[in-house]
Every structure is written in structure tokens, then in C-alpha cells.
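New to this. Explain these C-alpha cells.
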Amino acid sequence: MAGATLASTVLFYLVTNFAVWAFGSLDTKDWAGMITCYTAAIPFFRNSLAGDISFVVGLFGGFSVLKMLVRSVREQPQPLVAQRA
């Protein structure tokens, strides 16, 4: 889960900031402008990563705690059904 969370956050950062650079008008359309665009977005990346990690921990960690505390949430073994010949 940690790897998938990090990979999705990095991919989102790369794709969205490339789009801002390519279609926006704030930065020049050269290598320096693209680097400026990505550099300006680093604080947003940190917040996005912190939010994604918090969500994953809350969602999956919360479900794990719920499974430990509530018996009906745990996976129950299914009774075997006799096969007819």
C-alpha cells in the first residue's frame, strides 16, 4: 500500500504540473520554465502526499481495527455443502 500511495502521488504531481506548464501561461515554454513550474509545486506535492498517506492509513488501518473489534466484520468460514451425485 505504501508503494502504491507514493507512486500515485508522484504520478499525479508529474502529470498535473506538466499540464500546467504546457497549457498555462505563467511559465516560459522551455526547459527552465518547466523546472520552474515543478519547483513551484513542491509545497503542494508535500501536502498531497501527506493527505494521501493520511487517507490510506485511516481507511485501511481503520478497517483493520474494525475487524479486530467487531466479530461480524471478520471473514467467516463458509460451511461445506455436500455435492449431489
Q: What stands out?
A: The radius of gyration is 23 Å.
